[in-house]
Amino acid sequence: MGGLARSWSVALQGVDGTVVEIEAAIGGGLPGIHLVGLPDAALHESRDRVRAAVVNSGRHWPNERIVLALSPATLRKAGSGFDLALACAVLAASGTIPQGALHRTALLGELALDGRLRAIRGVLPCLLAARTAGLRRVVVPVAALAEASLVAGLEVHGAGSLAQVVEFLVEGTPLTAPDAVGEAGAPPSPPDLADVVGQSDARHALEVAAAGGHHLLMVGPPGTGKTMLAQRFVGLLPDLPPDDALALAAIRSVAGRLPADGLLSTVPPFVAPHHSTSAAALVGGGSGVARPGAVSLAHRGVLFLDECAEFGPRLLESLRTPLEEGEVRLSRAEGTVTYPARFQLVLAANPCPCAPAHDRDCVCTSLVRRRYLGRLSGPLLDRVDLRCRMHPVTALTSGDQGESTAMVRARVLAARAAATERWAAHGWRTNAEVPGPVLRSRFALSRDALRPLEAGLRAGELTARGADRALRVSWTVADLAGLDRPDRQTVETALYFRDRRAA
Amino acid sequence: MAAKDVLGRRGEDVAAEYLEKQGLVVLDRNWRCREGELDIIATGSAGLVVCEVKTRSGTAFGEPAEAVTDRKIARIRRVTQAWLAAHGLPWCAVRFDVLAIVIEPGRPATIQHYREAF
């Protein structure tokens, strides 16, 4: 009679975890379980699950009043991932598990009524939070072991049932250890750029976009290879550094989209939502606490909007904030969550609804044509540095075979390395991140190089923001060409991709 | 008498015996009024003790004490007021206990005593 014990688990708000201390007090009143500390419905039900699981694991359930407190008490706690920690807190309070065994150990997992331990979503961000909070070891469901092993610096144990966990805590019977993290085998090679016939302009634009991290719009008739090019875009990008790969894996874990093999993927993500997608699927949403959407799943990768003129205007406008801030904040009844969403936008569109192979065959009225691409609003298009026009394919085998992904990627990596080195002192990684004022003052170009821009501004063809974007692209073109800084020709090339007429 | 009532009566006998061994004096048993019934009313150094006795022949359908629901608790409180009024005791310390008794066939009865249960 009268026992008190503590265990630890992790609550998730988006991809941010908070370590939750669970206290169990036994005694003083009629038998019953009282759960306090802002639990949601699923967590409230864990009272019944936990009791059934403990009894069916052949352990003694204290037949007294049990108060379970989750702290910090003001934080809303959702889901079934606390089951294991609640069960162990009760067993420790009733003396089945020695007090010291739970010290600095996070317990994660949902319990089945027969005591089996079920997988939960978001194990990876939970472990990151546990590590930050200074916990020493974690017990996770076996199914989540591969995912858990991605986090270094924690002692990770995988358990299949509550009975195994109790034996582990009481007698030290070892649990399943994670396999040594296998080297991610060569990822399936993405489709090769050499497959695309012709389109030298668009290829060049693709290369510049990959090298500088610029957003890209491709306009052209159907069947010219817009989609093919976009699918080959990821192949040009450098592998993700470990930090970014882990951040991406955390988002995928919360979305329940982490591959089962548990290897940390360093391939930048490629996400291509259909144009009938809902705003919630695109930027994230859902009731209670919002779940990550396509923009977050494309974090540090590519978000490809095919037939972007078919997307509803509200959908496209909802992309503006994440484009600018690199994250989305979603507010729902149970609080606001922030998901990272630093993606590269690739848009593809037909020039008009009828979209014939040759523009001269178009039967659309000028008003319809204007309205079609007019759906892409000015503010959104202003953020797209590169616009290119696709030309109809005139020959099945063009004279010069296109370059392969490997060749272009080598140039892209070299250009990125040059840019990273130049901006390292300022904390930027790609040309696309550099603010305009810096490009105009501290890294100003020669008068001669700026002449095309001045002309464009004077003629009213270019906005001030547009000029900044062109400057940014010209630095990337220069990096690709191996130049020290942009000269007149690179600025002209950059302006070519800025051409309003392309959209 | 139905089998469950026989069991209940046996349980109450066991409970009364147990309480007297604890040094309490049983004042009343199965006191009824329109509101309901009190199983055992006893008194000791701490004042009045109102006891609800729950008897089961096994725990297959849950522990006996779990059968004391919020509704039943409210009724016991009401009936207690009626008892106090009937005996001219408007003001005294009252304690509510629950005695959970399991009488499995062929075994001695087990008693669990929840003091100040509600």
Automatic annotation (TrEMBL), chain A:
Belongs to the Mg-chelatase subunits D/I family. ComM subfamily. This is Mg chelatase, subunit ChlI. GO terms for molecular function: ATP binding. It comes from Pseudonocardia dioxanivorans (strain ATCC 55486 / DSM 44775 / JCM 13855 / CB1190). It holds the Pfam family Mg_chelatase. Signal peptide: none annotated. Coiled coil: none annotated. Residues 212-373 form the AAA+ ATPase domain.
Automatic annotation (TrEMBL), chain B:
InterPro entries: Restrct_endonuc-II-like (IPR011335), tRNA_endonuc-like_dom_sf (IPR011856), UPF0102_YraN-like (IPR003509). It holds the Pfam family UPF0102. Belongs to the UPF0102 family. This is UPF0102 protein ACFQ34_29715. It comes from Pseudonocardia benzenivorans.
